[in-house]
Design brief:
By secondary structure, the chain is an alpha/beta fold. It is 36% helix and 10% strand. It catalyses: N(6)-acetyl-L-lysyl-[histone] + H2O = L-lysyl-[histone] + acetate.
């Protein structure tokens, strides 16, 4: 059996149980032509608590998809290829870096039990069917925002070349209200953190829906360029994202929108994506990238209208990775949990330079992936492709025309990096210092104890040791 044949499901050779037990689930990809030999340091940021929250029985957003993703990632042993970080919650001060104080205070106080007392606030803050009140809503926001902030700090410090937070990517949330299942905008907070060090940040959104919350936050600046590929017909949520939305004032031409029709297929999407993103990166010259990898653009999604397969979606991530620019990858939409977890597991393998066996490994939740138990089920051809070649070519020409106005990458005055780059409060820092002092004393005591034991062992019989 050849080195790669174990990944080919068409092989007639069937290994016995003993051989299967020791067969790896992935094969390293080293110095491939497409990746240019780029072998990044990858970190995986997660908190298992975030998967335990529940929007409601009939609500399409299912946070437990993150648990399925983590199990697939560990089942394939991808955790061995990354640095793993169990993240802390975002502090209130970190949430206030973008959101208004009265909105954050509302999220902190509201519960299903006391919501009747907040009737006016529910209307004011756009709480309803899309964004319901559920148990632990504020803690949930802290967890997924904290993971994106932690990932951004690892990029800033140089500890990671690529940082992954699949619990993040909630791109619709606005400064004063939730929107589209999103309560706080972790992407905006991560970008604000990156801007403390990076002169230019590129945001790329391949979710089914327009990344309106991120675009709105940076619509007036040239230091952040937002690019969103999404379904648009003027009525589809959130109703924004036409190619005419290009930014205002200093930010004019630093917002790029790619409105697509129902049923776009793999080949059309990949060709359009690459033909637009290469000149964007060449002209804007970002020093950091955030890519939102919403899985609702896959075919077969509960709310989706595209025909993309998992490999095509991952090809977009692979293409951006090939530029070798520090990158934060976050999740987003995706409402068929088994396909969401397949996609994000596959894209984790793309970023760690390994090729996965298409047959899923044994996990406690393998029954979710029946009947095929495959990483790459056929997802396309559900919708008619309404994106004609002429439409896509005219759109490409229009978008490249918008890019023509970016004559050069905007510069920014260099300043001393803020000393509080980890965004730790004085109280937290004092606690950390005190803990380190205690640990230092304990280590010193243990060193002395080990020294005494070693000397005693080395002494001859009858020899006393003071």
């Amino acid at each position: 059996m050849t080195l790669a044949s174990w990944m080919d499901e068409s092989q007639t050779f069937s290994p016995d149980a003993k051989m299967a037990k020791h067969t790896p689930f992935f094969e390293p990809i080293i110095n491939t032509f497409n990746d240019g030999g780029y072998n990044p340091s990858v970190s995986y940021h997660y908190n298992p608590n975030v998967a335990s929250y529940h929007y409601g029985v009939r609500h399409p957003m299912k946070p437990f998809r993150l648990m399925l993703t983590d199990h697939l990632v560990s089942g394939y042993k991808l955790h061995e290829q990354m640095d793993l970080y169990e993240t802390r919650r975002a502090t209130k001060e970190e949430l206030l870096s973008f959101h208004s104080a009265d909105y954050i205070d509302f999220l902190k106080r509201i519960t299903p039990e006391n919501s009747a007392k907040f009737a006016n606030d529910l209307k004011k803050f756009n709480i309803g069917d899309d964004c319901p009140v559920f148990d632990g809503i504020y803690d949930y926001c802290q967890y997924y925002a904290g993971a994106s902030l932690d990932a951004s700090r690892k990029l800033i410090s140089g500890m990671s070349d690529i940082a992954i937070n699949w619990s993040g990517g909630l791109h619709h949330a606005k400064k004063d209200e939730p929107s589209g299942f999103c309560y706080v905008n972790d992407i905006v907070m991560a970008i604000l953190n990156l801007l403390r060090v990076h002169p230019r940040v590129l945001y790329i959104d391949i979710d089914l829906h327009h990344g309106d919350g991120v675009q709105e936050a940076f619509y007036l600046t040239d230091r952040v360029m937002t690019v969103s590929f999404h379904k648009y017909d003027g009525a589809f949520f959130p109703g924004t994202g036409n190619y005419e939305e290009v930014g205002v004032g200093k930010g004019k031409h630093f917002a790029l929108n790619v409105p697509l029709q129902d049923g776009i297929d793999d080949e059309s999407y990949i060709r359009l994506f690459k033909s637009i993103m290469e000149p964007v990166i060449t002209k804007f010259r970002p020093t950091a990238i955030i890519q939102q990898c919403g899985a609702d653009s896959l075919g077969g999604d509960r709310l989706g209208v595209f025909n993309l397969n998992i490999r095509a979606h991952g090809e977009c991530v692979k293409f951006i990775k090939s530029f070798g620019i520090p990158m934060l990858c976050v999740g987003g939409g995706g409402y068929t949990p088994r396909n969401v977890s397949r996609l994000w597991c596959y894209e984790t393998s793309v970023m760690t330079n390994v090729e996965l066996n298409s047959k899923l490994p044994e996990t406690p939740y393998k029954s979710w992936f029946e009947p095929d138990y495959s990483l790459h089920p056929k997802l396309g051809d559900r919708f008619e492709n309404k994106n004609s070649k002429k439409y896509l070519e005219d759109l490409r020409i229009q978008l490249l025309e918008n890019l023509r106005y970016l004559n050069q990458a905007p510069s920014v005055q260099m300043q001393e990096i803020p000393p509080d780059i980890q965004n730790i409060t004085d109280d937290d820092e004092a606690k950390i210092v005190e803990r380190l002092k205690r640990e230092s004393k304990i280590d010193k005591y243990r060193d002395e104890e080990r020294y005494y034991i070693n000397k005693k062992d080395e002494s001859r019989r009858g020899e006393l040791l003071d």
